[in-house]
Predict the structure.
Amino acid sequence: MSKKSRGRESGKGNSGRIEFPVVAIGASAGGIEAVVQFFQQLEKRPGMAFVFIQHLKPEHESHLVEILGRRVEQRIVQAEDGAELEADNVYVIASGTNLIVGPAIAA
């Protein structure tokens, strides 16, 4: 995601550093309801980026983008290699991948 979404704050300032908080959340399948409740309590544009890592067996396909997308107001996106972090987005790790987060995502 090298393009910026309209109306969203890009993650990198002039220094190349992330200019807003990045919150990492981890849970197993049993924790999804708690994560949904967490996001439902937040305002739609909290000024932070969220990275959600679900504990899943690598061979299981994740449906988190669809599940969260139906139940919360924040923008839910699959974390992709090279994606620029943007405030007010929730990034979901894909099954069977490792994730490194800096000003851009390395998946």
